[in-house]
Design brief:
Elements (H helix, E strand, L loop, with lengths): L1 H11 L4 E4 L12 H5 L5 H17 L7 E5 L8 E8 L8 E7 L6 E3 L5 E4 L10 E10 L10 E8 L13 E6 L7 E4 L17 E6 L4 E3 L5 E4 L11 E9 L9 E11 L7 E2 L3 E7 L7 E5 L1 E2 L9 E8 L5 E6 L4 E6 L10 E10 L13 E11 L6 E2 L4 E6 L7 E4 L2 E2 L8 E5 L9 E3 L5 E4 L10 E10 L6 E11 L7 E2 L5 E4 L7 E5 L1 E2 L11 E4 L9 E5 L5 E5 L11 E9 L7 E13 L5 E4 L12 H28 L9 H12 L12 H5 L7 H5 L3 H14 L1
Parallel strand pairs: 2-8, 9-15, 17-24, 26-33, 35-42
Antiparallel strand pairs: 1-3, 3-6, 4-7, 5-6, 7-8, 10-13, 11-14, 12-13, 14-15, 16-19, 18-22, 20-23, 21-22, 23-24, 25-28, 27-31, 29-32, 30-31, 32-33, 34-37, 36-40, 38-41, 39-40, 41-42, 42-43
Helix pairs in contact: 1-3
The structure holds 2-acetamido-2-deoxy-beta-D-glucopyranose (NAG) (2 copies).
GO biological process, one term: response to cold
InterPro entries: Cadherin, Cadherin-like_dom, Cadherin-like_sf, Cadherin_CS
Pfam family, one: Cadherin
């Protein structure tokens, strides 16, 4: 077995450099030393150490042979020997020289080129550089010719416990709810140690608490901090300072240590009920305070903070629950008592309320500690205030007949001073609401009288404002609206609803309806209008016309016979008496003008007499004169023309006025003559636009009408 291993090693290590390591026994006696010694290619050395190799080859496969170890931080008087290079080449006649190159060769590591001893000439720090890679070579001392290929090996720096644990993230802050159970995890901390974590215990840390007991504990290995007391009370102590130590070497004496601080803050839970600062509050308030005004504040203190201290306030009892309300002010955490309904000192002078403050956010864990609410009593005293007069009604509606006598009383307003002193009141009318001074008011008793006559037909409503003023304090004023409605009296007689123009056909039959008229009355009787029509007493037996009342309050005028003739009488005037149904009734006489006209067989009016027409209303004097002048001129021309023609029996040519002539000639062509009123209707000229609506009823041919227009244009 040793032989086989030797052969294997020989195959692996042909360059045959022997690394023989001498370790200073005073510094280091680690068990791993054995492995370092097993650095051999020499059959002699191997046979000497085969026993160790055998053991190690069993216990640890793949061991690395080509490395040396040097202890960090070594600072003795002499450079420390790291190891020795050795080759088993037969030195024979030649002298061998060892050459070292690579990391730190010559600067950190020096080699004795004859003996092969390697020394570290500088102090090494594993935490700075843990290993160095170097190359060794054996050369001929004289020729410097390599005797074998270069061989690489590693010098590892051996750790010593030269670094203390450090809390890199400290100091720490953590929170834990108050009233937590024992062993509640708060946080954990971590220390780091720069020493080799895989070698020795230099980096094996153990945690402990130096300060902060008995409130907190720490798990030595995991550094988890937990509460060590149950039910710690934030309201008693809110903040704790914990000093934590980490010690290496597994916590054994001689190890290095580091500390940090942890500040633990207890967070609030709702473990305290609200408590009113006073069990009785006194407030006073003037009776005339505006609704919604804050009257007072009540506050229940709560040792908790934040939402755990929030309470809602309520009025739960008392004789003023309808008049007052309480609102919770989340900001100030108090309750504001406000007025909801008007107070009246004269009715009730004090109120008592029972108010309650109840925590909003209850923690069920503590609800067994009792109700998280409190009550207090609030006494509110109402103070008297000087109040303005109060009218017996917020508004008044008065009615008065339009024929009421001047100074007659229309109605009365009353008002009183609600105060105990009860000042007398004086009344006045706000003249801005009665600009025409239609009414007066008795300043003492509030009786409203009529100052000027009323007319319902002018104004139905007179809405005025009455002012009441306290005599003892003129600044105490109230106003009230008074609506005065004017009631109707039958003071207007009925009359024709419009200006009627009646026409009667010469060829009409007896009993024909000439015109239907209706009446109107400015008054407004309750049951509507009912009119009575009659002929004047002296005309009751009028031989020419009769009247007939219709269902709809209108009246029809009928012809009594058919013997009407324009030649005999062109116009009839028919006075009609109309009376209303008022009490007493009023009546008036309206006269209907009836013109006799020539009509077609089917009763269409074709021509009425000239004189029957009234000049159109609305023309200016100048226009009328111009029209008249025009008519006279035309008449003269026509008469002249007709006369001349009869005498000479030939057309007359008027050289100076051809336009007029042409038109006249055409009329003449149709027959002409003084009797021909249809062909030459002067009324048409006077009223060419048919303002009175006559023209369409004449049924004149359109052509004729246009020609007449032309005549008028040419003349005027
Ligand atoms: C006056 O008051 C009455 C009743 O309030 C109302 O009906 C009427 O419209 C008012 N008239 C005027 C002109 O304001
Ligand atoms: C009735 O008509 C005739 C002529 O047609 C007239 O003389 C008489 O005065 C008229 N009577 C009345 C009352 O209008």
């Amino acid at each position: 077995m040793p032989e086989r291993l030797t052969e294997t090693l020989m195959d692996l290590w042909t360059p045959l450099i022997i690394l023989w390591i001498t370790l200073p026994s005073c510094v280091y006696t680690a068990p791993m030393n054995q492995a370092h010694v097993l650095t051999t290619g020499s059959p002699l050395e191997l046979s000497r150490q085969s026993e160790d190799m055998r053991i190690l080859s069993r216990s640890k496969r793949g061991w690395v042979w080509n490395q040396m170890f040097v202890l960090e931080e070594f600072s003795g008087p002499e450079p420390i020997l790291v190891g020795r290079l050795h080759t088993d080449l037969d030195p024979g006649s030649k002298k061998i020289k060892y050459i070292l190159s690579g990391d730190g060769a010559g600067t950190i590591f020096q080699i004795n080129d004859i003996t092969g001893d390697i020394h570290a000439i500088k102090r090494l720090d594993r935490e700075e550089k843990a290993e160095y890679t170097l190359t060794a070579q054996a050369v001929d001392f004289e020729t410097n010719k390599p005797l074998e290929p270069p061989s690489e090996f590693i010098i590892k720096v051996q750790d010593i416990n030269d670094n203390a644990p450090e809390f890199l993230n400290g100091p720490y802050h953590a929170t834990v709810p108050e009233m937590s159970i024992l062993g509640t995890s708060v946080t954990n901390v971590t220390a780091t140690d720069a020493d080799d974590p895989v070698y020795g215990n230099s980096a094996k840390l153990v945690y402990s608490i130096l300060e902060g007991q008995p409130y907190f504990s720490i798990e030595p290995e995991t550094a988890i901090i937990k509460t060590a007391l149950p039910n710690m009370d934030r309201e008693a102590k809110e903040e704790y300072l914990v000093v934590i130590q980490a010690k290496d070497m597994g916590g054994h004496s001689g190890g290095l240590s580091g500390t940090t601080t942890l500040t633990v803050t207890l967070t609030d839970v709702n473990d305290n009920p609200p408590k009113f600062a006073q069990s009785l509050y006194h407030f006073s308030v003037p009776e005339d305070v505006v609704l919604g005004t804050a009257i007072g504040r009540v506050k229940a203190n709560d040792q908790d903070i934040g939402e755990n201290a929030q309470s809602s306030y309520d009025i739960i009892d008392g004789d003023g629950t309808a008049l007052f309300e309480i609102t919770s002010d989340a900001q100030a955490q108090d309750g504001v008592i406000r007025l909801r309904k008007p107070l009246d000192f004269e009715t009730k002078k004090s109120y008592t309320l029972k108010v309650e403050a109840a925590n909003i956010h209850i923690d069920p864990r503590f609800s067994s500690r009792g109700p998280f609410k409190d009550t207090a009593t609030v006494k509110i005293v109402v103070e008297d205030a000087d109040e303005p007069p109060v009218f017996s009604s917020p508004t008044y509606l008065l009615e008065v007949h339009e024929n009421a006598a001047l100074n007659s009383v229309i109605g009365q307003v009353t008002a009183r001073d609600p105060d105990i002193t009860s000042s007398p009141i004086r009344f006045s009318i706000d003249r801005h609401t009665d600009l025409e001074r239609q009414f007066n008011i008795n300043a003492d008793d509030g009786k409203i009288t009529l100052a000027t006559p009323l007319d319902r037909e002018l104004s139905v409503w007179h809405n005025i404002t009455i002012i009441a003023t306290e005599i003892r304090n003129h600044s105490q004023i109230s106003r009230v609206p008074v609506a005065i409605k004017v009631l109707d009296v039958n003071d207007n007689a009925p009359e024709f609803a419009s200006e009627y123009e009646a026409f009667l056909c010469e060829n009409g039959k007896p009993g024909q309806v000439i015109q239907t008229v209706s009446a109107m009355d400015k008054d407004d009787p309750k049951n509507g209008h009912f009119f009575l029509y009659s002929l004047l007493p002296e005309m009751v037996n009028n031989p020419n016309f009769t009247i007939k009342k219709n269902e709809d309050n209108s009246l029809s005028i009928l012809a009594k016979h058919n013997g009407f003739n324009r030649q005999k009488q062109e116009v009839y005037l028919l006075p009609i008496v109309i009376s209303d149904s008022g009490n007493p009734p009023l009546s008036s006489t309206s006269t209907l003008t009836i013109r006799v006209c020539g009509c077609s067989n089917d009763g269409v009016v074709q021509s009425c007499n000239v004189e029957a027409y009234v000049l159109p209303i609305g023309l200016s004097m100048g226009a009328l004169i111009a029209i008249l002048a025009c008519i006279i001129l035309l008449l003269v021309i026509v008469v002249l023309f007709v006369t001349l023609r009869r005498h000479k029996n030939e057309p007359l040519i008027i050289k100076d006025d051809e336009d007029v002539r042409e038109n006249i000639i055409r009329y003449d062509d149709e027959g002409g003559g003084e009797e021909d009123t249809e062909a030459f209707d002067i009324a048409t000229l006077q009223n060419p636009d048919g303002i009175n609506g006559f023209l369409p009823r004449w049924g004149l041919p359109t052509q004729r009408w246009e020609e007449r227009n032309a005549i008028q244009t040419g003349c005027v």
